Every structure is written in structure tokens, then in C-alpha cells.
What we know:
The complex is a heterodimer of chains A (282) and B (297).
Chain A: E1 15-20, H1 23-40, E2 43-48, H2 52-62, H3 66-71, E3 75-79, H4 80-84, H5 92-108, E4 114-119, H6 133-144, E5 149-156, H7 163-171, E6 175-177, E7 190-195, E8 200-207, H8 212-222, E9 227-237, H9 239-245, E10 253-256, H10 260-268, E11 277-279
Chain B: E1 2-8, H1 11-27, E2 31-36, H2 38-48, E3 55-59, H3 60-63, H4 67-83, E4 89-94, H5 101-117, E5 123-130, H6 136-145, E6 148-149, E7 153-154, H7 161-167, E8 179-181, H8 187-200, H9 205-226, E9 231-237, E10 240-246, H10 271-278, E11 281-286, E12 291-296
Parallel strand pairs in B: 1-5, 1-6, 2-3, 2-4, 4-5
Antiparallel strand pairs in B: 6-7, 8-9, 9-10, 10-12, 11-12
Amino acid sequence: MAPVDSCVAVRPGEHACCRFAQAADRDRTAAAFVSEGLTRGDKVVYLADRDPEELVADLVGGDDRVEAAAERGQLDVRSARSVYAPLGRFDVELMLRTAREERDRAAAEGYPALSIIGEMSWAGPSVPGSELVPEYERRLDELLSRAGIVALCVYDTGGHLGPATLSDVAGAHEVDLSPELAVLSHTGSLSGARTDDGRALRLAGDLDFDCADALAAVLAAHFHGPLRLDLTDLAFVDVTGMRALRGHTGQPLTIAGASPTVHRMLRLLAWDTDPGVEVLSA
Amino acid sequence: MRHELLLYAQDDTLVDVVAPFLEDGLAAGDAVVTVLDTRKLDLLRAALGAQAKGVAWIDVASHYTRPEAAVADYDARLRALVGDGVPHVRLFGELPPLRSEAQCDAWIGYDAILNRAFDHHPVSVLCGYDRRAVPERVLGAARTSHPVVHGHGLNDAFADPAAIVRAHTPEPEPVPGLRTIPAGDGARALRRALVAAMTAAGLGPRAIGGMVLAANEVVANAYRYAGGPPEVRAGSADGRFVCEITDSGTGFDDPLAGHLPPRARGDRGAGLWIARQSTSRLEMLRGEGGQTVRLWA
Lengths: 282, 297
């Protein structure tokens, strides 16, 4: 179990986008991403907008494996700007080549995969080529779909890229940790992501009474009509958490990825015969 | 729901009453289910002849080891049948062999609970009580837990199911030597601590998962109804793992709490139901400082 008491709804092999409004949300997501990468034994590369040494110190505070991982090179924290825009400008082809090289290097070093997290706050008027970030993300999405690499691209909603560009960027990722889902992680250890072009909600971690109210509020505010859920990565769910899935309105649900535990819960709560709940078989 | 008692002492009576009960159900287009020991299943199957294939025959020994599981299983079956468009269900069943006083009490309570658990289902339940095998005090209780007695019609001795369950819920004894588990650091920390304690005690993943879920539900109730973190103690007693959760609320007095299956979209609290389903025994103790729920792995 990762020492960090939070998780992130991103799976190995995926290309995920995290848009954050609060630095604390970014830090929580990033720390969980790093911890999960270390737990898998991945090479973890962190391209940071902040001072790498300070960042490592922050990460050590949440996960005592980080220091040793940094010392042996399993965790490699670098300045984002120096990697994305080494010559003062952002070049799509150059960065895609860098991504491939990092992946190949991780493999050559004997790691099963590369976990890479890139903070993108450098993108803006001061860096020429920043307007090509959406194109880069689309190309990266193609690259990632066939490589031993999981990537989390981190964008500040208050940064230089406008809402339209950020929306475009998010659409280039198969997994979208969109900003309205960040509140799910504020208590307990639940993480949510939009998948399937924003049409489905994936939940990971523990859905318990600590975070049930937050989930119900998010569903009421941002998910209207029939709800498609992917519960594959749920480690724990209780009655209050299950109830929250119906939101305030008892909206129809389609549930994919129900574990034996979730199936049992569905049966004991009489949801297995509720016409408003469709459970997809694996 | 119709809930009827059949007291009998001979195989011939069993066949003479139950075979027509099942056949009438088949003729009416009902779903027909029989839950019995294998010897009696064979007797009835033979009596029904070619019609036997229309009946679901269930061996009571292999399916109904605990009353809590039996209620959940019947409820799921009934819901599924009704969902499939079956207009009505007929069920003939007997209790499994009762091997201890505790089992007698639990199954006495079970037959009372059925009145409330399934009162909304379109089902006729005929319960067989074999005088040759069932202890006298269980026969006596059965005469009060069924609204109808076969051959006699409405039962004047029918009693409030909650009162029957209360009368047959033994007063829990104190369990000394349990150790406090910190519960103020959130539900997840408590779940982790329980997993660690149970793993150290050598329990398997199924028992651990059930206990963690049950304790979490009881703790959730403590936060919701008693307004704060409960005191949680755990340890081993009589070779079994025990977890006690004491809240600071005034508690409540409902002998049926957690015994009734939730209904779809109902707002009935389901936490204690889940807790009972996920552990081997749940006991409630009311003390001066608050209410304690004791869970046995």
C-alpha cells in the first residue's frame, strides 16, 4: 500500500490530464501519482514547475520511500521548462522524441514502465510554440496508446492558457481529472476522472461516508441525466457511498467494473433488481 | 404475503399437504420453490412425478446455514422472480437441523422476521415443522410466529414479530480484554487498523473484508446519529475475533434493526443490515454511556 493517503484514477498505460484550480489539489494528485508509480516499480520522471529540490522535500513528507527513490534514480525530478522548452521555445517533435527517449531509457534501466508527470504552467506568451501544446497532447496520446508509459499532464486553470485551449487540451487525453472532481479527494482517499470523452465517471480508491456527500454534490452539479460509472478501481465502498452514486435525484446508473464486493453490495441493497440500475458484466 | 404454519409428525402428512400446495401453485402459474433436507425433497419429488421439474428443489443444509443469509437469499430470489414477471411465488420450507440453543433462538427469530421482511412480496410461504425433529420450545414459538396455521385458519396466538425477536435475543455478556483502536483519525485509518489487527490474528481475507465493512457501517451510524467518533475496541474472545463499537448517543431499541432487507430506493437505513450480513453475529448492548454494537468475525 502506498504511504500517501490518497489515490489517483489513472491506470498504467494511460494518458491523463489534470486541470487544477488549487495548488493543494495539484500536490495531492501528483503525490498520489508518484507513490503509485513507485509502488508499481516504475521509473518516475517528474517535470516540475517548481524547484526540484523543494518538490522532492514536499514529496518525502507524504511518502518516506521518495528520498531513497530519488537517490537511486528511480525518481527523477527535473525542471519542466528545461525539458519542454530547452532552447527557450516549445518544439512538438523535439518533445515527442524526448518522451520516447525517456520511455526507452526507463526500459533500458530495467523498469517495467515509465510514470511521467509534466507540469505545464510554463506554457504561455513567454514561451514561443506554446500554442502547439494541444497538438502535442494529441500526438502524445497516439504515442502513449502503444507504449509502456503512463503520463499525467498537469494544467493550472488559472494559468496562461485560456479555458477554450484547456478544454481542447483535456479532450486530447483519454482520462480527464477535471477540476470539479478534485473535491472528491479532500476527505478520505477517493479519486475521480472523466473517461470516454467526458461521458463516463471513473472512481478509484475508497468511496465511504467520509466522501459520500462530496460525491453526491459533484454529481448533482456536474452530471445530469443517466450516469455511466466505472468502479473497476474502487477498493472499498460502503452503504453511504453507494447511496451517493444515485445522487440527489435517483438518476439511472450504468455500472461497469463491479467487483465481487460491489456485486454483493448491489444485491444486498436490492439494486440488482432495480430497473434504474444496469450492471454490465465484465 | 401469506405465512402459514404446518405442524406434522408423519411423512404421509407432509406429502398429503405439501404436494397439493405445490401442484396448485404450478397450475396457477406461480414460481414454486421447496427448501428441505434431501430425504424429504425426494419424497415430495416422487409425489409430484412429472410435475417435479417445474419446482425449484433446494437442499436446506447446503443453502441455509445462517438465518441472516436465508433472509437475504429469499429476498433476492423473490425480487428476481417478480422482476422477471412472475405474478406470485409459492414457497415450502423447513428449518435446517438445530444443533444448539443459540441456533434455536436465531431460527425462532427468523420465522418471525419473515412476516416483516417479505410483507410486500407476492408470496405464499408454508413452513413445515416436523414434531419428530424440532425441539419443543421451537415448536411453541412457531405457533406464535405464523399468522395462519394449516387446518385452523387465522392464528389467535400470532404475536408481534419484534416481540418474538426480542424474547429470543440473548442478553450479551461482557467480553473482557479487548484493546482500543483509535477511531478519531477517520474511517479509512480505522479500516486499516482493523485489517492489521485481523491479519495479525490470522484471519483470512473474507472474514477481514466482512468485518471491515460491518465495522465501517456501525461507525458511520455513530457519526450520523450520535454525532461523533465512537470508541472502537477489538481483540479475540473464545478463539473468535470481536470488534465493539460504542457511541455516545442515546441509542435505540429496535429488535428488528438490521434484520430487514432494504427495498429498492427505500430510505430505510441499510448499514446494520449490511453489518449483520457481513459478520457471523451482531449484538447490541445498551449501556449508560451509549450504545455498543458487537461484531463477531
